[in-house]
Design goal:
two-stranded antiparallel sheet, alpha/beta, Diverse_substr_monoxygenases, globular, 15 helices
Length: 457
């Protein structure tokens, strides 16, 4: 195992273009500003704050359906603002990019319901406008409500969605990497030649799910293919991540369990001809900190008073595929086979045991989510983050918001300086695109499956 004692730790702010994201109910806290999510100035200020604090990026989650598993309808989700209303995350990026230079933007887009030809153009456009600071969180969805919204009766089975995703990736790789040669754009004013037609190809694809005969509408962007994020930790999800992902997101459980997932994904990547270093792993984390441990604990107790247990169950019901409204507090919960987020079901079973109940789940959701918070002084938080980095192979953290903006202000003011003193956090930004900052190169390496589609001279 490589020495990770001075491994650089990276931070992304983890958020969503909505009121209630992960920590359900905290939007009701009087100091929380997430209700301003419809205001462009809110997101511009947000981006400036993160860049001044040397965050690596902001990662924007998304869903294209409503959380209507709990009670069989969306009533509780609407009352508790459990990820509804929710706006498009991609439209925030240009505004935030305009007021920053280095901050990266990871955006979630559900490939199941988005035509690859149009989606590829949107991502190339964002990569151009941000100067190569865009990443794509590849998701296949988990809500039947999203499928119904586009005319289907229900979503496809979990593993079938990944089969579709593999073909989708092949199509967008060809559009991004193959359609335009590196030297296709000539911009020759004297001869009125902007692009060389001989260097631009139409992509022809005849597959099980997709048919395409078209050239990519965008010229090559700084990264061509955006940095690829993926969050699935199920068996099928890990195989997909090993094939495609550059950054993998995992949920914090027991350290040995996370280490096993990290090692497995990297081993699978190596089997596919990639390097273990081609994959960065980010763990979801919730931090409540202050000048002292006492101050942090007092803030944590204050936050707890605003948690909505019902909204937390609404979100859990949707992501686990289980209607918790049907269960009494101590009634054993039957998980069965789920078409929701399979890795979430597996994670809960590991933490709560095979016979878990609604009471056990609520005991975990102390801040309105299944993610147990880290509460402590800056030194204590730094110790925990470094332990995860060194012992579980974690490269960085997706820091879920609690009460914004103070939750990120506290991390910037208290935690980052400690990590800098210990030599595990940057004191300034590197130049270059997001992929250059992460891996040293603007383009995907030759070992990645997308590279096989590149035009060769």
């Amino acid at each position: 195992m490589a020495d990770r004692t001075k491994q650089e730790i990276r931070f992304n702010a983890f958020d969503m273009n909505c009121v209630g994201h992960i920590q359900q109910g905290l939007w009701a806290h009087p100091r929380d500003q997430s209700h301003r999510f419809n205001e462009i100035s809110y997101w511009m200020d947000y981006a400036r704050r993160l860049e001044e604090g040397l965050f690596d990026g902001i990662f924007l989650a998304d869903v294209v359906g409503v959380n209507d598993v709990y009670g069989g309808n969306a009533d509780a989700a609407l009352k508790g603002a459990a990820q509804v209303p929710v706006n498009d995350p991609l439209l925030l990026v240009p505004a935030m990019a305009a007021v920053t230079k280095h901050l990266a933007f990871g955006v979630t887009a559900n490939l199941t319901y988005d035509a690859p030809f149009l989606f590829a153009r949107r991502m190339s456009t964002l990569d151009h406008l941000t100067g190569g600071r865009i990443g794509w969180n590849i998701v296949t969805g988990y809500l039947d409500s999203a499928a119904k919204a586009i005319g289907l009766d229900q979503q496809a089975a979990h593993d079938d969605r990944y089969d579709l995703a593999d073909e989708y990736m092949q199509v967008v790789y060809r559009l991004w990497e193959e359609s335009w040669a590196d030297n296709a754009v000539r911009f020759d004013r004297e001869n009125h030649l902007y692009a060389d037609p001989a260097k631009v190809r139409a992509i022809r694809h005849e597959g099980k799910q997709y048919r395409l005969n078209a050239m990519h509408l965008s010229s090559p962007s700084p990264q061509r293919t955006p940095v690829l994020y993926q969050a699935g930790s199920s068996t099928r999800g890990r195989q997909f991540a090993a094939t495609h992902a550059e950054c993998v997101f995992v949920n914090g459980q027991k350290m040995e369990g996370v280490r096993a997932i990290v090692d497995d994904i990297r081993a699978k990547a190596v089997e596919l001809g990639r390097s273990a270093g081609d994959i960065k792993v980010f763990m979801g984390a919730t931090i409540v900190t202050g000048r002292t441990a006492k101050e942090a604990q007092e803030k944590f107790e204050e936050y707890r008073r605003y948690v909505s247990s019902e909204a937390a169950l609404v979100h859990a019901s949707a992501s686990l595929g289980i209607d918790f409204s049907k269960y009494d507090l101590d009634e054993p919960i039957e998980t069965g086979k789920s078409n929701a987020i399979v890795s979430n079901v597996e994670a809960v079973s590991r933490s709560a045991g095979p016979q878990w109940t609604k009471r056990k789940l609520l005991e975990q959701m102390v801040l309105g989510s299944r993610q147990p918070p880290m509460v402590g002084s800056a030194e204590e938080i730094a110790d925990q983050l470094m332990a995860w980095s060194q012992q579980a192979g974690i490269d960085g953290f997706n820091l879920s918001r609690t009460v914004v903006p103070e939750c990120f202000d506290d991390i910037i003011a208290y935690v980052i300086p400690i990590l800098q003193e210990r030599g595990v956090y940057k004191t300034g930004y590197r130049e270059g695109t997001l992929r250059e900052k992460l891996f040293g190169n603007a383009r995907l390496p030759e070992s990645h499956t997308a590279a096989s589609f590149r035009q060769r001279d």
